[in-house]
Amino acid sequence: xxxxxxxxxxxxxxxxxxxxxxxAHLWRDSAAFVELSQTIYGxxxxxxxxxxxxxxxxxxxGERPTLTHxxxxxxxxxxxxxxxxxLNDNQRNRRKIxxxxxxxEEAVFDTARTFLERSTxxxxxxxxxxxxxxANEGFTGSYAFRERTGVDIRIKRAMGYLMFAPRLVSNGPxxxxxxxxxxxxxxxxxxxTWARALRKHxxxxxxxIKSEKYYAVTGCWEPIPMPARxxxxxxxxxxxxxLEVFCADEPDRIESWQxxxxxxxxxxxxx
Length: 271
Hints:
Blueprint lengths: L27 H15 L15 H4 L16 E4 L21 H10 L3 E4 L3 E4 L1 H9 L8 E4 L2 E2 L5 E8 L13 E7 L2 H10 L4 H8 L4 E8 L20 E7 L9 E2 L12
Parallel strand pairs: 1-7
Antiparallel strand pairs: 2-3, 3-4, 4-5, 6-7, 6-8, 8-9, 9-10
Helix pairs in contact: 1-5
Protein backbone atom coordinates (compact mmCIF):
# COMPACT_ATOMS: atom_id res chain seq x y z
CA UNK A 1 0.00 0.00 0.00
CA UNK A 2 1.38 3.40 -0.98
CA UNK A 3 1.93 5.99 1.71
CA UNK A 4 0.04 9.25 1.86
CA UNK A 5 1.46 12.76 1.45
CA UNK A 6 0.88 15.45 4.06
CA UNK A 7 1.77 19.08 3.39
CA UNK A 8 3.11 21.11 6.32
CA UNK A 9 2.10 24.77 6.02
CA UNK A 10 3.35 27.94 7.69
CA UNK A 11 1.89 31.41 8.11
CA UNK A 12 3.78 34.54 7.15
CA UNK A 13 2.39 36.68 9.95
CA UNK A 14 0.96 36.28 13.43
CA UNK A 15 -2.65 37.07 14.28
CA UNK A 16 -5.00 36.64 17.21
CA UNK A 17 -6.83 33.31 17.63
CA UNK A 18 -10.13 35.13 17.13
CA UNK A 19 -8.97 36.07 13.61
CA UNK A 20 -8.17 32.51 12.53
CA UNK A 21 -11.28 32.00 10.38
CA UNK A 22 -11.01 35.49 8.87
CA UNK A 23 -7.39 34.81 7.87
CA ALA A 24 -8.12 31.45 6.24
CA HIS A 25 -8.13 33.18 2.85
CA LEU A 26 -4.33 33.38 3.11
CA TRP A 27 -4.01 29.68 2.31
CA ARG A 28 -7.35 28.77 0.75
CA ASP A 29 -6.41 28.71 -2.96
CA SER A 30 -3.45 26.36 -2.63
CA ALA A 31 -5.20 24.13 -0.08
CA ALA A 32 -8.31 23.85 -2.26
CA PHE A 33 -6.19 22.99 -5.30
CA VAL A 34 -4.37 20.27 -3.37
CA GLU A 35 -7.72 18.81 -2.27
CA LEU A 36 -8.84 18.65 -5.93
CA SER A 37 -5.56 17.56 -7.49
CA GLN A 38 -5.75 13.82 -6.81
CA THR A 39 -9.18 13.65 -8.44
CA ILE A 40 -7.94 15.62 -11.46
CA TYR A 41 -4.82 13.47 -11.90
CA GLY A 42 -7.03 10.39 -11.60
CA UNK A 43 -8.84 11.53 -14.75
CA UNK A 44 -5.59 11.29 -16.71
CA UNK A 45 -4.27 14.84 -16.47
CA UNK A 46 -0.64 15.62 -15.60
CA UNK A 47 0.84 18.66 -13.88
CA UNK A 48 1.61 21.46 -16.32
CA UNK A 49 2.65 24.66 -14.57
CA UNK A 50 1.48 27.37 -12.19
CA UNK A 51 0.23 30.42 -14.10
CA UNK A 52 1.41 33.60 -12.39
CA UNK A 53 -1.44 36.08 -12.81
CA UNK A 54 0.20 39.30 -11.60
CA UNK A 55 -1.60 42.64 -11.38
CA UNK A 56 0.34 45.60 -12.79
CA UNK A 57 -0.65 49.13 -11.71
CA UNK A 58 0.39 51.38 -14.59
CA UNK A 59 -0.45 54.51 -12.57
CA UNK A 60 2.18 53.55 -9.98
CA UNK A 61 4.73 51.59 -11.96
CA GLY A 62 4.44 52.90 -15.50
CA GLU A 63 3.93 50.89 -18.65
CA ARG A 64 3.55 47.20 -17.97
CA PRO A 65 6.43 45.05 -19.23
CA THR A 66 6.02 42.36 -21.86
CA LEU A 67 4.59 39.14 -20.47
CA THR A 68 7.14 36.35 -20.66
CA HIS A 69 7.24 32.62 -19.96
CA UNK A 70 3.50 32.19 -20.55
CA UNK A 71 2.94 28.41 -20.67
CA UNK A 72 1.78 26.96 -23.96
CA UNK A 73 -1.56 25.15 -23.67
CA UNK A 74 -3.76 23.25 -26.08
CA UNK A 75 -7.28 21.85 -26.21
CA UNK A 76 -6.38 18.83 -24.07
CA UNK A 77 -5.14 20.97 -21.17
CA UNK A 78 -7.15 22.06 -18.14
CA UNK A 79 -6.94 25.43 -16.36
CA UNK A 80 -8.05 25.17 -12.73
CA UNK A 81 -9.26 28.15 -10.68
CA UNK A 82 -9.85 27.56 -6.97
CA UNK A 83 -11.02 31.01 -5.97
CA UNK A 84 -14.01 33.19 -6.77
CA UNK A 85 -13.38 35.28 -9.87
CA UNK A 86 -13.91 39.04 -9.27
CA LEU A 87 -16.28 39.56 -12.20
CA ASN A 88 -18.08 42.52 -10.64
CA ASP A 89 -15.88 43.58 -7.73
CA ASN A 90 -15.90 47.21 -6.69
CA GLN A 91 -12.39 48.39 -7.50
CA ARG A 92 -12.53 50.83 -4.59
CA ASN A 93 -12.92 48.02 -2.08
CA ARG A 94 -9.75 47.73 -0.03
CA ARG A 95 -10.04 43.91 -0.06
CA LYS A 96 -10.64 43.57 -3.79
CA ILE A 97 -9.00 40.86 -5.86
CA UNK A 98 -6.61 42.51 -8.29
CA UNK A 99 -6.84 41.63 -11.98
CA UNK A 100 -3.99 41.28 -14.48
CA UNK A 101 -6.06 41.93 -17.65
CA UNK A 102 -3.88 39.56 -19.66
CA UNK A 103 -5.50 37.97 -22.74
CA UNK A 104 -5.69 34.64 -20.89
CA GLU A 105 -7.39 36.18 -17.86
CA GLU A 106 -9.87 37.96 -20.14
CA ALA A 107 -10.70 34.63 -21.81
CA VAL A 108 -11.20 32.98 -18.41
CA PHE A 109 -13.51 35.81 -17.32
CA ASP A 110 -15.50 35.68 -20.58
CA THR A 111 -15.96 31.95 -20.06
CA ALA A 112 -16.99 32.39 -16.42
CA ARG A 113 -19.82 34.68 -17.52
CA THR A 114 -21.32 31.67 -19.25
CA PHE A 115 -22.22 30.47 -15.75
CA LEU A 116 -22.30 33.60 -13.59
CA GLU A 117 -24.42 36.70 -14.00
CA ARG A 118 -22.74 38.40 -11.08
CA SER A 119 -19.82 37.60 -8.77
CA THR A 120 -18.63 39.86 -5.95
CA UNK A 121 -17.28 39.27 -2.44
CA UNK A 122 -20.83 39.40 -1.10
CA UNK A 123 -23.02 38.12 -3.92
CA UNK A 124 -23.10 35.41 -6.59
CA UNK A 125 -25.90 35.02 -9.15
CA UNK A 126 -26.06 32.26 -11.73
CA UNK A 127 -26.44 33.24 -15.39
CA UNK A 128 -29.95 33.75 -16.79
CA UNK A 129 -30.13 30.56 -18.89
CA UNK A 130 -28.96 28.38 -16.00
CA UNK A 131 -31.33 30.11 -13.56
CA UNK A 132 -34.31 29.55 -15.87
CA UNK A 133 -33.35 25.94 -16.45
CA UNK A 134 -33.31 25.39 -12.69
CA ALA A 135 -36.75 27.02 -12.45
CA ASN A 136 -38.05 24.62 -15.12
CA GLU A 137 -36.92 21.75 -12.90
CA GLY A 138 -38.90 23.16 -9.99
CA PHE A 139 -36.07 25.00 -8.25
CA THR A 140 -36.74 28.57 -7.19
CA GLY A 141 -34.29 31.44 -7.17
CA SER A 142 -31.02 31.83 -8.99
CA TYR A 143 -28.89 29.98 -6.46
CA ALA A 144 -27.76 33.44 -5.53
CA PHE A 145 -25.58 34.02 -2.56
CA ARG A 146 -25.72 36.77 0.07
CA GLU A 147 -22.59 36.43 2.15
CA ARG A 148 -21.60 37.08 5.71
CA THR A 149 -18.34 35.32 6.68
CA GLY A 150 -18.92 32.62 4.11
CA VAL A 151 -22.53 31.74 4.98
CA ASP A 152 -25.68 32.76 3.11
CA ILE A 153 -27.55 35.04 5.49
CA ARG A 154 -30.99 33.86 4.27
CA ILE A 155 -30.74 30.08 4.58
CA LYS A 156 -27.80 29.87 7.02
CA ARG A 157 -25.91 27.56 4.68
CA ALA A 158 -22.54 27.72 2.98
CA MET A 159 -22.53 27.33 -0.80
CA GLY A 160 -20.01 25.95 -3.25
CA TYR A 161 -19.76 26.11 -7.02
CA LEU A 162 -18.02 23.76 -9.48
CA MET A 163 -18.22 24.86 -13.12
CA PHE A 164 -16.62 23.32 -16.17
CA ALA A 165 -16.26 24.57 -19.74
CA PRO A 166 -14.79 22.22 -22.39
CA ARG A 167 -13.13 25.20 -24.07
CA LEU A 168 -12.39 28.80 -23.23
CA VAL A 169 -14.39 31.62 -24.80
CA SER A 170 -11.90 33.81 -26.66
CA ASN A 171 -13.43 37.17 -27.56
CA GLY A 172 -10.05 38.88 -27.80
CA PRO A 173 -7.38 38.73 -30.53
CA UNK A 174 -5.69 35.68 -28.98
CA UNK A 175 -7.35 32.28 -29.10
CA UNK A 176 -7.26 29.82 -26.20
CA UNK A 177 -8.65 26.32 -26.58
CA UNK A 178 -8.00 24.92 -23.11
CA UNK A 179 -10.66 23.56 -20.78
CA UNK A 180 -11.63 25.50 -17.64
CA UNK A 181 -12.59 24.19 -14.20
CA UNK A 182 -13.71 26.65 -11.52
CA UNK A 183 -14.19 25.45 -7.94
CA UNK A 184 -14.93 27.95 -5.18
CA UNK A 185 -16.97 28.89 -2.16
CA UNK A 186 -17.38 32.28 -0.54
CA UNK A 187 -14.82 32.34 2.28
CA UNK A 188 -11.50 30.74 3.16
CA UNK A 189 -12.63 27.80 5.30
CA UNK A 190 -15.66 27.15 3.11
CA UNK A 191 -13.51 27.20 -0.04
CA UNK A 192 -11.33 24.38 1.28
CA THR A 193 -14.33 22.55 2.78
CA TRP A 194 -16.04 22.46 -0.63
CA ALA A 195 -12.97 21.19 -2.50
CA ARG A 196 -12.35 18.62 0.24
CA ALA A 197 -15.97 17.42 0.16
CA LEU A 198 -15.76 16.87 -3.61
CA ARG A 199 -13.07 14.24 -3.04
CA LYS A 200 -15.93 11.95 -1.99
CA HIS A 201 -17.47 12.57 -5.41
CA UNK A 202 -14.32 12.02 -7.45
CA UNK A 203 -16.11 9.89 -10.04
CA UNK A 204 -18.55 12.72 -10.76
CA UNK A 205 -15.77 15.34 -11.04
CA UNK A 206 -13.71 13.08 -13.31
CA UNK A 207 -16.72 12.45 -15.53
CA UNK A 208 -17.20 16.20 -15.81
CA ILE A 209 -13.64 17.19 -16.69
CA LYS A 210 -13.41 14.47 -19.36
CA SER A 211 -16.67 15.62 -20.96
CA GLU A 212 -17.33 17.85 -23.96
CA LYS A 213 -20.36 19.38 -22.23
CA TYR A 214 -20.67 22.39 -19.94
CA TYR A 215 -21.35 21.51 -16.32
CA ALA A 216 -22.55 23.50 -13.31
CA VAL A 217 -22.54 21.82 -9.90
CA THR A 218 -23.88 23.70 -6.89
CA GLY A 219 -23.71 22.49 -3.33
CA CYS A 220 -24.85 23.68 0.07
CA TRP A 221 -24.16 22.54 3.59
CA GLU A 222 -24.49 23.64 7.18
CA PRO A 223 -21.03 24.83 8.20
CA ILE A 224 -19.24 23.29 11.15
CA PRO A 225 -17.70 25.71 13.67
CA MET A 226 -13.94 26.00 13.37
CA PRO A 227 -12.02 24.72 16.42
CA ALA A 228 -9.82 27.16 18.27
CA ARG A 229 -6.63 25.46 17.06
CA UNK A 230 -7.24 22.88 14.32
CA UNK A 231 -4.35 20.73 13.10
CA UNK A 232 -6.01 20.09 9.71
CA UNK A 233 -9.27 20.62 7.85
CA UNK A 234 -10.47 17.24 9.08
CA UNK A 235 -13.01 19.00 11.28
CA UNK A 236 -15.08 19.69 8.13
CA UNK A 237 -15.46 16.04 7.13
CA UNK A 238 -18.81 15.60 8.87
CA UNK A 239 -20.77 18.04 6.69
CA UNK A 240 -23.97 16.88 5.01
CA UNK A 241 -23.68 18.04 1.44
CA UNK A 242 -26.60 18.59 -0.94
CA LEU A 243 -25.68 18.72 -4.65
CA GLU A 244 -27.38 19.86 -7.85
CA VAL A 245 -25.81 18.96 -11.20
CA PHE A 246 -26.72 20.52 -14.55
CA CYS A 247 -25.09 20.14 -17.97
CA ALA A 248 -25.53 21.73 -21.41
CA ASP A 249 -24.23 21.55 -24.96
CA GLU A 250 -25.10 25.20 -25.63
CA PRO A 251 -24.99 27.03 -22.29
CA ASP A 252 -26.57 30.25 -23.61
CA ARG A 253 -29.82 28.41 -24.42
CA ILE A 254 -32.20 27.70 -21.52
CA GLU A 255 -33.52 24.52 -23.09
CA SER A 256 -29.99 23.15 -23.48
CA TRP A 257 -29.43 22.91 -19.72
CA GLN A 258 -30.52 19.55 -18.32
CA UNK A 259 -30.49 18.35 -14.75
CA UNK A 260 -28.26 15.35 -14.13
CA UNK A 261 -29.89 13.09 -11.49
CA UNK A 262 -27.59 12.99 -8.52
CA UNK A 263 -29.86 13.53 -5.54
CA UNK A 264 -29.03 14.59 -2.02
CA UNK A 265 -25.87 13.00 -0.77
CA UNK A 266 -24.05 12.72 2.50
CA UNK A 267 -20.59 11.39 1.92
CA UNK A 268 -21.71 8.75 -0.60
CA UNK A 269 -22.28 8.98 -4.35
CA UNK A 270 -26.02 8.87 -4.95
CA UNK A 271 -25.90 8.96 -8.74
